[in-house]
Design a protein that fits this description.
By secondary structure, the protein is an all-alpha fold. The chain has helices spanning 2-28, 34-51, 55-63, 69-88, 95-110, 116-150, 154-188, 197-211, 213-222, 228-247, 254-268, 275-305.
């Protein structure tokens, strides 16, 4: 039961933090209201869980080799604590990084061999995803902007922009199910949860509804000014980068992708980018896996001292 509770806690924490990155640009640009954004998250995350690939969950499962159900419980619990603290702070961090960091901490505490080759590929993807997202966002903006300028009807422009931003947010929410939530699904089998996708998607939606507003405002309003055109280009570029990583079986951060896309496009357009906020977010990307890993290492050490099964 504790393992299932930890999985639900982790899914809720993803909703509180990662879901804000999926719809933050749509809310920040005024296209979607908060409640409509949460509804979109719930529907398309569930679709991502039901029809997405199992590549990411398989990768995470391999990293958990040798860790028992008790250890998986502590991995999920520690990662969820790290993400929840960041959400309280209103900062988008990487739930994928937190889980991978916690898995590394558990493996080290238990004296298990770590698949450092896979970890290295994942870390490389973390570094490259914000850069790739920025380049994709700039490319999409340069293709999309001239098309909008040639439109003669202002009403048509407004309708097209709203739909494109909506579709980009839906695509990003779908990626939550195929990548971030897939991390939890991959570990849930180790704690006896069969076919946990729908219930975890529901927990994620509750996290978005109850706790995501602060992170959503950071993504949508505090990094750079977002017009509907910029919002679409940033969100779609970030989503494409996450999809590529998902197909490669790499658990990446939608937060890193969207922050990279917004900041990169803002710099390209010569608009103001809040460097203080971006640096603060980037520091959180380092702190989160380290904190989750250290907390897991300590907790596993304490519990094994009492001869509990991990």
């Amino acid at each position: 039961m504790l393992g299932i509770a930890a999985a639900l806690f982790m899914a809720w924490a993803i909703g509180a933090n990662d879901s804000a990155k999926a719809v933050g640009t749509a809310v920040g640009s005024g296209i979607l209201g908060f409640k409509n954004a949460v509804t979109l998250i719930g529907v398309f995350t569930l679709l991502g869980v039901l029809v997405g690939t199992s590549n990411v969950s398989n990768t995470v499962t391999r990293l958990a080799d040798g860790i028992g159900s008790g250890g998986v419980f502590l991995v999920l619990f520690s990662a969820a604590i790290a993400v929840t603290l960041a959400s309280l702070w209103g900062r988008p961090i990487s739930t994928s990084q937190s889980i991978v960091g916690a898995l590394a901490g558990a493996s080290l505490a238990l004296g298990l061999p770590m698949d450092w080759g896979t970890v290295g590929r994942i870390v490389l993807a973390w570094v490259l995803s914000p850069v790739a997202s920025a380049l994709l966002a700039i490319g999409i903006y340069n293709v999309y902007k001239p098309i909008i300028r040639r439109a003669k009807s202002l009403a048509t422009i407004e309708v097209v922009q709203k739909w494109l931003v909506f579709l980009a947010a839906a695509y990003s929410s779908f990626n939550l199910g195929t990548n971030e939530l897939a991390n939890v699904i991959g570990l849930s089998g180790r704690i006896g949860m069969g076919s946990p996708g729908p219930i975890l998607a529901l927990a994620l939606t509750l996290g978005a509804l109850t706790f995501s507003r602060g992170v959503m405002m950071t993504v949508g309003k505090h990094i750079s000014v977002l017009s509907p055109t910029s919002a679409f280009a940033s969100q779609f570029g970030a989503s494409l980068a996450v999809t590529v990583a998902t197909l490669m079986g790499l658990p990446v951060s939608s937060g890193q992708a969207i922050v990279g896309a917004i900041a990169g496009l803002g710099i390209y357009k010569g608009e103001g980018v809040n460097v203080v906020v971006v640096k603060d977010i980037a520091a959180g990307w380092v702190r989160a896996p380290l904190f989750a890993g250290l907390l897991t290492y300590v907790l596993v050490g304490i519990f094994t001292a009492f001869s509990l099964d991990f």
